[in-house]
Amino acid sequence: MNTAPATSAHGYRRWSGQLSRRRWTWLAIFVAGVRLTNRATKVRGLVWMSFMFAVGSCALFYMLARLEILAGSDEASDMYGLINMFLHVDLSGVKQLADFREVLWRSVFLFMFKGELFWVFVVIMRAGPGLIADDLKARALPIYFARPVTPLTYMMGKWMVVAFFIGMVVLVPNLLALIFGTLTTGGLQTFGQTLALAGDLLITGGGVVVFGGAVVLALSSLSSDKRYVMVGWVAFCLLPVMAQAVLFKVLPDETTSGWLGSVSLYRDITVTADWVFGIRAAWESTPLPREVFDRALGRQSTLVYPAVVLLTFTIGSLLICYCRVVRFSRSAANA
Amino acid sequence: MAVIELDRLSKWYGEVIGLNDVTATVDSGITGLIGPNGAGKSTLMGLAMGQLRPSTGSIRLWGKTVWDRPAVLSRVGYCPEGDVFWPEMTGQQFVYFLARASGLRRRAARTAALEAIDLTAMREYMHRPIGTYSKGMRQRIKIAQALAHMPRLLILDEPFTGADPVARHDLAQLFHVLASQGVDILISSHVLHEVEALTKQILMIDHGRIVAEGDLREVRRRMHDRPHAIRVKVDQPRVLASKLIGLPTVTGLKMTAEDTLIIETSAPEKVYDRLPEMLLAGDLLVREIAAADAGLEAVFGYLTGRGAAD
Q1: Domain count of chain A?
Q2: Which domains does chain B have, with CATH numbers?
Q3: Which of A263, B24, B68, B242 is the most exposed place for a label (fewest CB within 10 A)?
Q4: Inter-chain contact B102–A19, Cβ cutoff 8 Å?
Q5: What was the ipTM of the complex prediction?
């Protein structure tokens, strides 16, 4: 395969080598997008700060490892209090904590994941709105679509940019924490116990990447002013949470177990994450008395409604974004 | 093979006609796309880039339909008229990114980007963010991105806009060099004399229709209904006028200055044949003999009913 351009006497070298397949053009869009977004100090700062979640998880793993050794001693009493505060489980009467390592780690990751969701919201707010809106504002679409870039590869490239930043918040810190915890707690035995957690972390993190990326891309394709997109994103995330809080306050529990319980997207994601991590089943399968972990389980919800809501929004957003991008690509010359 | 073929091509925007049943070909070399604002130039370019779908008819690049077949575009470089920049990007990043998006691999894209930047004389400024560029520099970096993937065909929409006279000259030189290297260029401009200096091959468009196509001189020659004008700068124009008045092919004579005579004729070749003999016979001192309305501007004015491009 010849990849070297043929040189001419006058300096212009017409390309005679092989070009990448056009389905890989998203990679160029992705790399350029990440570089451009990463130039913003605030985005870089937010991404770096998201590693506090990894630090938090590691601190909890460390505490749990210490408790495995110090269980029942006076030294452990302060740590029981801290664990109870963060994970809502009372381990003070539990011997042989190592037997419950997996379920405890699941609780740690779920606790961190819920915090990371807020961070994802903030990072998307900074990194996502300009993805397509800036191209619309710069009227850059004619030069994208004057190349072998299809609407799908363009969308893929843009989505990968936001996916990269979401992944840096919700995937990388958790996986790092898992590696740290495994290495510092029991080695190979722990690795076997917690291996499934890596898969669960990838699924939940991947879900957030797909959902958040799709929604912000759709919003970004709707306006050429990223400030409006930002406002749209904030409203999209916060208004349902506020509505849900009011509903939970005024309605009895039974009425909020169906559709009414799925108004808040934040709650939908956490309910789905609970299901992926199997936290309820994991605790209930332990021989521990219910009062040890009851607070950690929270309000019981069915998965169907949250899953349907999230899927609908994801597919709807992707469709909106795709239709918009196709429209842009077919009228780029008049943009 | 023709580079671009338009076959009964039409494009409507609702009830507005962008292009109306156009059949034409663009051959190798530089072709000037001329027309007033709203004539359909950008529509034609958009159709050629596969960014607009033909309402009827077809447009082909090297015999291949371009609509919905973006692979063809890897051989085309496009420089749109407006600004298309991300102001935070440096010139080099901009050109490199678009070379990559065209399918060049990393190393090749880096080399090609630098070459394109060199060709447009932007190396000195390539590490500066585009937001700090002057209009002329933006124009040049935009042309660099069109060249970055080393295309066979360049489609340039008003490439001289904003460039200073030196940059215009350099760009014109660059286009000549590229054309001599076998790069075909379709260039639209409203600065007619600049297009005329680049090429005699034109595609003139007005109200969505092609009004003239081909070699400018040939187009002018075929305009039989318009008398040709020959400008003669001579010391005694009245004497020359008295000699010319008897020629049957001369349809009018005008003195536009003390030393300038405009000869209107339906057969300019015959007038050119007879002029030396008349000048010698009258012992007249000649300073200039030139076609007064064979230029692009005049042809454009005749064909579109406008004095010049707007």
Answers
A1: 1
A2: 4-220 (3.40.50.300), 227-292 (3.30.70.920)
A3: B68
A4: yes
A5: 0.75
